[in-house]
């Protein structure tokens, strides 16, 4: 995959993207990355990218021109045709794991981070394919949102996460939350580890983990189970889990 990020704070993007999974993906060439600063495409010597809103009111608005020119340059440099252009916005579709899964299949992506009061509406209408929000709150800029999206997408690319199995059973991948994890020491401040994990019976461990995933989802995010089709075995397990919780509460 190739991704272009449009932002007036390129160093902020670089700092985040040099680290962790995304940094590794870029270093290994699994993810091509380029950053475009709208100030480089401004039409005046002051590198102006914003102006006062028509109609008055507080704050500044990012101008369509430098943003459009940045996106055009990103499209020109993208090694594949027609990268999907995403504007990060609190007004966008809520970003979810299933959207991350979809974006991870794309060959090219351009992420546009706004600032100030937002960006000129004509830029959104003409240049973007999708608006994505990372939650119902307002950030001061789209950079962190763009990095959230890119991180969630990059870790799904083939070869980026060491063991692909670790991705398959993570929270939200199949409509459930992840099961609990434990590591050494075997006893921490008087708290042990569930016996079943120490007995080496892999099918029993698998069943325990499935039950735990169902149990946690039921307790922490019951809304997720409403939209999920459960197999007969999962349904039986869930009933068992609910009975156990009922008995212990
Ligand atoms: C202060 S916000 C502008 C908010 C805009 N006036 C509104 O109320 O819809 C500045 C920039 O931050 C980014 N942003 C803010 N909240 C976001 C969110 N929840 N998800 C994605 N991007 C967000 C957008 O790129 C936006 O252009």
What does this 3D model show about the protein?
This protein has 249 residues and is of the alpha/beta class. The chain folds into 2 domains: 2-154, Alpha/beta knot (3-Layer(aba) Sandwich); 169-248, Orthogonal Bundle (Trp Operon Repressor, Chain A), CATH 1.10.1270.20. Helix 3 (64-77) runs parallel beside helix 5 (121-127) and helix 8 crosses helix 10. Helix 4 links the parallel strand 5 (84-94) and strand 6 (108-113). Helix content is 41%, strand content 14%. The strands form 2 sheets. It has a 5-stranded parallel β-sheet, sandwiched between helices. It has a two-stranded antiparallel ribbon with strand order 3-4. The longest helix has 19 residues, at 202-220. The chain is elongated and about 70 Å long. The chain has helices spanning 10-17, 20-27, 64-77, 97-103, 121-127, 143-154, 164-168, 202-220, 222-226, 232-248, and strands at 2-6, 32-36, 50-51, 61-62, 84-94, 108-113, 130-133. The structure holds S-adenosylmethionine. Residues 88-91, 113-115, 117-119, 133-135, 137-142, 145 line the site of S-adenosylmethionine.
Brief sketch in words of this structure:
This protein is 41% helix and 14% strand. The protein has helices at residues 10-17, 20-27, 64-77, 97-103, 121-127, 143-154, 164-168, 202-220, 222-226, 232-248; strands at residues 2-6, 32-36, 50-51, 61-62, 84-94, 108-113, 130-133.
């Amino acid at each position: 995959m190739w991704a272009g990020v449009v932002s007036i704070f390129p160093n902020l993007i670089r700092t985040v993207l040099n680290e962790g999974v995304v940094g590794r993906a870029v270093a290994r060439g699994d993810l091509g990355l380029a950053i475009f600063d709208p100030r480089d495409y401004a039409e005046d010597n002051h590198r102006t990218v914003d102006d006062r809103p028509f109609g008055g009111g507080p704050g500044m608005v990012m101008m369509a021109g430098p943003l459009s020119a940045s996106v055009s340059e990103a499209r020109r440099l993208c090694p594949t045709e027609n990268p999907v252009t995403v504007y990060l916005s609190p007004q966008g579709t809520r970003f979810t794991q299933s959207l991350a899964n979809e974006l991870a299949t794309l060959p090219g992506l351009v992420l546009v981070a706004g600032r100030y009061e937002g960006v000129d509406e004509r830029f959104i209408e003409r240049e973007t394919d999708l608006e994505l929000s990372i939650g119902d709150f307002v950030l001061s800029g789209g950079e962190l949102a763009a990095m959230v999206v890119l991180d969630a997408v990059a870790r799904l690319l083939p070869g980026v996460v060491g063991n692909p199995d670790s991705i398959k059973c993570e929270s939200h991948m199949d409509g459930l939350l992840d099961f609990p994890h434990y590591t050494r020491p075997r006893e921490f401040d008087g708290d042990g580890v569930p016996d079943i994990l120490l007995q080496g019976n892999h099918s029993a461990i698998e069943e325990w983990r499935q039950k735990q995933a169902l149990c946690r989802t039921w307790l922490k995010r019951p809304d997720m189970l409403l939209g999920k089709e459960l197999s007969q075995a999962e349904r039986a397990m869930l009933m068992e889990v609910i009975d156990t919780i009922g008995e212990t509460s």
